[in-house]
Amino acid sequence: MAAPRRSTLWIKSTQALLLAIAVCFSMGATDASSRFENMGRKLMCTCGCAQLLGGCDHAGCPARGQEEVELRSGISAGNSDQAIFDSFVAKYGAVVLAAPTTHGFDLVAWIAPFAVFAAAMLGTVLLVRHWTVGRTQPPTQAADPKIDALRERIRRDTDADNDGGF
Question: Is the pTM of this model over 0.90?
Fold first, then answer.
């Protein structure tokens, strides 16, 4: 009877631990300031400094303040992240997004680096194979009876069959 009690205790303890971990991770998920910081890392500052909106340290940045106000107002209005991103794209264009979308032609930006890497690896493998094929196989020579007779004479004269223990 002690074994079933012990196993149920472990199961309930594990469930309580998982619940506590889930609660801890979800506590900051709805916080407006953490949402602002998270979304600020997904948007670009449009002043031309090529930095994320949340990390723009451009002194006297003319665009950062306005964009942050728009982001805060979208969050306080209860808009979803996608709705806020869509409003930024409508106003500033797709360059305001820190990462390209995964739709349409923008999908090329995600696929192209991997495709170029795969093509480069394939090209390298084929080039190395091309270089090594000639080195691993001995050159083939046409059988010439005069050369074969000369080799046989050299072997007899030098006693090549008896190498003297070498």
Answer: no
